Amino acid sequence: MTDNNGGTLKAKHQRLILILIALVALIGAGLLAAWALRSQASYFYLPADIAAAPPAVGQAVRLGGMVQQGSLKTLKDGVTVTFIVTDKDSATVPVRFSGILPDLFVEGSGVVAEGKLGADGTFVADNLLAKHDENYVPRELKDMDQHKPDETLTGMEPVT
Amino acid sequence: MIAELGLAALWIAAALAVLQLIGGALAQRDPGGELAKLVRPAAIVQGLLAAFAFLMLLYLFAVTDLSVKLVATNSHSAKPMVFKLAGAWGNHEGSMLLWVTVMSMAGALIALVERRLPERTILATLAAQAFVGIGFYAFILLSSNPFERLPQPALEGNGLNPLLQDIGLAFHPPTLYFGYVGLSVAFSFAVGALLTRQVNPDFARVMRPWVLGAWIFLTLGITAGSYWAYYELGWGGWWFWDPVENASLMPWLAATALLHSVSVLAARDALRAWTIMLGVVAFSMSMLGTFLVRSGILTSVHAFAVDPERGTFILVLLALYIGGALLLFALRAGTVAEGERFSVTSREGALVFNNVMLSAILGIVLLGTLYPLLTEAFDVRVSVGPPYFNPVGAIFAIPMLMVMAIGPLMRWRNDRFDRIKLPVWIVFAIMAAVFLLVLVLGSYGWLPILGLAASIGLAVGSFLPLRGRNLLRVPTATWGMVIAHFGIAVALFGMASESAFSEEHLAAVDVGESTKVGPWTIVLDDVAPVAGPNWTAIEGRLSAQYDGGTAIELRPQSRNFWAPPQETTESELATRWNGQLYAVIGNQSGDGRWQLRLWWKPFVTFIWYGGVLVALGGLLALIGRLRTDLKRRFAKARSIERRSSGEAE
User: Fold this and answer.
1) Which chain A residues are closer than 8 Å to B586 by Cβ?
2) Out of B76, B127, B190, B588, which residue is the most buried by the measure of CB atoms under 10 Å away?
3) Whether ipTM exceeds 0.85
4) Inter-chain contact A103–B584, Cβ cutoff 8 Å?
5) Residues 6+ apart with CB under 8 A from A56
6) Tens digits of residue pLDDT in A29-58
7) pLDDT tens digits for B524-563?
8) Rounded-to-integer distance, Cα B484 and Cα B255, Å
């Protein structure tokens, strides 16, 4: 029946050929996806990780940590801020961000910054994820929030 | 009392589901027996009882009965009525109850009206439906009881997450659930047909309205969810490739493939095993979506249950359903005889090609969504975003869109390329022209340019099947296809235009100062505090002029809700036919200036107009198919009548 394009073999084994084509396409998609995932996934870094083995300059990564007390500064243009992200090992990374800060972004609280490490060692963030509300915390921040009570205490009590 | 009534109704409904499963399974040997007669009534009463239980929950939320734990933790007496009601499904327990209610009502509908297939097949279908239902009943009754009482009534409720207090979102979850449940019905039919060896065009015609219905609801749900994310989150984006968004996209991709393959099965008796397989995959994707969203394995505004017990429960259900269905498919697929053949250059050939492309895109989205969970097992934390999904998805989407523009021009079974050479060259010439034009006019990314070219070509191509036909005599279902395909083109145009031509401006301005974005001039007139029923806000008053025209007032807000305490950014939009101005107000900087974030997004609204058009096309196709079915039913009834009256004479 498919005389105009394909031999008898094709007609006989049409089902098999269809399955093969579908499989080839799907496996192709799978391989392509696996390759792209390895190169395009953005890895999560803590400040200590960046100090130990920094990502390539310009590679999209996520940086998570606490915003250091007293480090938040607004630049002259009124929309660019800089602050320092730290972790419990007290490694620090300076961050620059242009935009409106998330609603619950405060010093001493957790933040995940999406962006790239600049050549000067400053992390340039395209987007900041802060704690959204008590039920919605970026998953990387979950562990950090357990340290929060201590931080609040040290902030309130005179440092000895 | 009301809560106990609801709980009792739910327990009886669960018991009836067990009866429906056992009855349906045992009656396979004796479809005319006593046991078989119980199955349909059981399904109908089960549907009514589940609906009753859900109505009781709605009532509890309407009167804010604070002795019920779910109401106390998710509602508040000061909330507007529509959000009190929406609160009933804006949480884990209530949404699970909504799911099981919609599902059992769908089962009741099948039991009530569906008589076109052999009784054995319907009984097997209802048994499969009950099997899926029992899992959900068990989940609700054993680990997430929505009617649980508090030992001491609470004084006041905790309120609903303010991000969810939005009219569009109040109807977003039910819409998606209707879609998921429609796919579960399609799955039950697939299992019923596979078990009783009835994979044929009749079965496809019975299954098709459910797939179409599910697909319409999924389309609307995704469109509404995307618009919500766009204006409510205040980030100016309309799709973030967030796992929760992907969880709704994957069932849609599978349903789209299923919709087309079930049409081939109904019209041409081809693609039998493939249709059954897609039925299993589509349902698996909606279960996986529920698991990802509801297990707390992902963190987002959608994930209510962080309780590991619940996550495990859903995972077990997921494994049981998907594993069982795949096992059944593996065992029985061999018994499905090969359908009608077709050549590569035919309508079927084009549909198969696009089915494979859709499946490939589905696989890519699935891998990208699960990859972070996978690497986490090895303690590597990654996130997968647009740099992965956009280009890799496009590799398969672009060929699919091209075939989509010309596929409907082909004839069934066997066609020659020569016959449709002219329209095909016209479509491709248009695509090439747009591509070159955009390439010359500006420097944009490859993907938006390809998207613009494909969208214009597809827009023209989608109307070509009407060429040379009497428009009054074109079947409703064909109009549905034309409009749905055109809707895809419109949405694609919006997406490509938004990513190519958007302009963003971020500024700190004093009151009275003006700033510019794209063709707009914006003046910050004033900033004032305002109050709503359960929030207070800082409101910016902007006047915006398009190209020196009359000024439009915009009032973006930064809102503070007090139950539960939370800040949200309320963006303001000025919509023109050719795009939207998007304004967000931020904090006051130290020197008294206010941060403004402004976007001019040309044709961004086409994304959602397109989504609505696609759903409208689906609706037309559904109406057309149902009308044909009804006509056929009447004709059959009349011929039986005539024959019996003829015998009497």
Assistant:
1) 99-101
2) B190
3) no
4) no
5) A117
6) 999 999 988 888 888 888 888 888 888 888
7) 999 999 988 778 898 999 999 998 888 999 999 988 877 6
8) 14
**B521-to-A98, B548, B566, B598, B644 alpha-carbon distances in Å:** 21, 8, 32, 11, 78
Cβ contacts of B642 within 8 Å, gap of 6 or more: none
> Model's pTM, two decimal places?
0.90
Q: How is residue B403 written in tokens?
A: 């075939």
C-alpha dihedral sign at A6, A10, A11, A14? negative
Residue-by-residue DSSP string for B385-444: -HHHHHHHHHHHHHHHHHHHHHGGGSPSS---GGGGHHHHHHHHHHHHHHHHHHHHH---
| Residue whose entry in the numeric block shows the structure tokens 């972070």 | B372
Whether residue A134 has pLDDT greater than 60: no
Query: Hunting for tokens 């009525």 — which residue is that?
Result: B81
What is the DSSP code string of A54-93? PPPTT-EEEEEEEEPTT--EE-TTSSEEEEEEE-TT--EE
Among B74-88, B397-411, B436-450, B607-621, which stretch is predicted with the lowest mean pLDDT?
Answer: B74-88
> One-letter amino acid identity for B52?
F
Q: Find where tokens 């900041």 sit.
A: A128
Contacts of B359 in chain A (CB under 8 A): 22, 25-26
First to last CA, chain A: 91
Cβ-nearest to A135 among B161, B391, B558: B161
- CB–CB of A62/A140 below 8 Å? yes
